[in-house]
Design brief:
Elements lengths: L3 H13 L3 E4 H9 L6 H13 L2 E4 L10 E6 L41 H11 L3 E4 L8 E4 H9 L17 E3 L4 H11 L2 E4 L5 E5 L1 H29 L5 H7 L17 H9 L1 H7 L5 H19 L8 H20 L3
Parallel strand pairs: 6-7
Antiparallel strand pairs: 1-3, 2-3, 4-5, 7-8
Helix pairs in contact: 1-2, 7-12, 9-11
Length: 335
Amino acid sequence: MPRQEFINLVNKVKKEGKPEKLTIRDLLWRFGNYEKRTSGNVWRINEYLKKEKLIIVPNYQGGWVDQYVELKEMDKARIKSGNESEEEKFDPINRLSVLKAASQIPVSITRDADLQKAFHLMWKNDYSQLPVMNNDREILGIISWQSIAKGLITKKDSNCVKDFMIDEYKILSEDTPLFESIKEVIKTEMVFVKTRENKIRGPVTPFDLNEEFLEQIEPFILLEQIENFIRLILHNKIVLQDILKLLVISDVSRKIESISDLTFGEYILIIENNENWNSLDLPFIKADFTNELHEIRKIRNGVMHFHPDKISDAELNNLRSMSKFLMDYIKNFNI
C-alpha cells in the first residue's frame, strides 16, 4: 500500500486531469520511502498504477534517478470528430446550424425602401417573400407577394415597404435540434436562424431541407448501386468453393451461400485474385480498377460508420463517376 502522500498525488492527477512532474527519486520516496528500484519495489508501484489507470512517462525503471518523469492518466478512448480542438465538446445532437441555408446572410430590404425595390429583389431572386431588416441582428417584419397583393386590393395609398410588411415569421436559435427545426420549417414553410452572436441567417425552407437530405442520402444510394454492379460482374463467373478458399471468416455463425453474402472488401479480394481476374475477362487494367475499388471502399467505410462530417465533393464525385462507369460497362456489354 503506498503512502498517503502518494495517494494524494494520484487523486490530484485524476481530479485535475493534468500530469504531475517529479523526479524518479521523489517518486520512489513518495510511494514507499524507497531508495532503490528493486524488482519488488517496481512491481508494487506498477501494480498500484495499473489499478489506478495511471502511467509514468518516460519509463522510470531505467535512467538517472534524478531524471524528471510525469505521472499521468492512461489515454482514454475518445470520440473522433471533424474538429480537432480539445476544447470543442462532442455534441450528439444534430442542430439547425448543420444546414447550409442556416449560415447564409439573407437577402433583405429596409423598412423605408420603395416597393419597386421589393418587386425587383423578389423577382430577380425568385423569392416569394423578403425579411425587412435595417441591420443584421433584427427582423422588423416580412414583405411578400401575398402581403403586397392584399395591400393593393385594400387600396393602400403607399409605395413604401413598411406599409406592406407583416409580422408572420419564425426565428429559431441555431442550436435548435434539427428534428425539431424540420417540423417548424414544414409547419411555417420558412424559418430564420439566430446565431450565437445574435445575427440573423437563413431563411431555411422546405426546398433547403430537400436539398440537404438529398445530399445526405446520395452517397448511400450510389454505394448501393456500385455494390449491385459489382455483384452483377461476379455473378455466375466464379465457383463458390473457389471464393470460400480465398476468405478468412472469423465468425463461425456466418454463412456465405451467394455473392450477396460478401462484403465490399471481399469483392475486391476476389477480383484481385489472378485466376478470378482471368475468369471475369474484364476490359480494364487490373491495377487501375482494383485501386479505384479500394478508394471506393475507404469512402464506404466512412459513410457506413456515419462519420460526423459529410464526405467531400471529391469523394462524392468519385462515387458518381464509378457508378456511371460500371453502369455503362454493364449496359454496353449486356451483363
